[in-house]
Q: What sequence folds into this?
């Protein structure tokens, strides 16, 4: 009888160790998103005969260990100037951000989704435009679309002049995401947009 119990214990231990090993191997094979350092870049945006120059705060996002499916990005407000009121959704759920080279859309909720491999995918976080001083805008798809079409700001995307701290989070459906805290300076002059890692 003792012999039977020993074999059962050994088989149980081997089964547990092999399950753990398989779980570790599968975890190591899953894609992992990696955010670069934030940077500011001036972009000329054109469509037909219309060309505009905007400043953008961007990240580059890559995937280690294969293709990351259904990636989305959000900006969550951690700190903002005392004299500024922002919509409460920015503090909990965050705001969906725009992936560069995806057409601007007029949807006011949700986040764009892209698949990311080893080639960098640019993420738009915030932007400024020449005809709007003393503010920047979160790069929400609706904010970019509205600014491009009408030249108007979307109220929930406006970041009045001052210093902000954001947590930028990227996630995917089949792997591990990444996040970085950044300090964003919404400038008095559109050309002076700044961002750096906290």
A:
């Amino acid at each position: 009888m003792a012999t039977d119990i020993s074999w059962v214990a050994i088989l149980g231990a081997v089964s547990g160790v092999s399950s753990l090993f398989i779980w570790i191997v599968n975890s190591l094979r899953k894609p992992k998103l990696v955010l670069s350092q934030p940077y500011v870049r001036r972009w000329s945006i054109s469509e037909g005969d219309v060309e505009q120059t905007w400043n953008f705060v961007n990240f580059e996002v890559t995937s280690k260990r294969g293709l990351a499916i259904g990636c989305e990005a959000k900006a969550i407000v951690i700190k903002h100037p005392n004299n500024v009121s922002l919509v409460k959704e920015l503090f909990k759920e965050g705001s969906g951000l725009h992936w560069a080279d995806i057409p601007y859309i007029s949807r006011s909720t949700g986040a764009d989704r892209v698949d990311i491999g080893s080639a960098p995918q640019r993420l738009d976080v915030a932007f400024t435009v020449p005809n709007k001083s003393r503010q920047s805008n979160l790069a929400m798809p609706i904010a970019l679309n509205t600014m491009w079409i009408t030249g108007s700001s979307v109220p929930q995307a406006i970041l009045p002049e001052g210093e902000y701290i954001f947590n930028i989070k990227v996630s995917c459906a089949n792997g591990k995401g990444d996040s970085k805290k950044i300090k964003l300076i919404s400038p008095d002059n559109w050309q002076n947009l700044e961002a750096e890692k906290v």
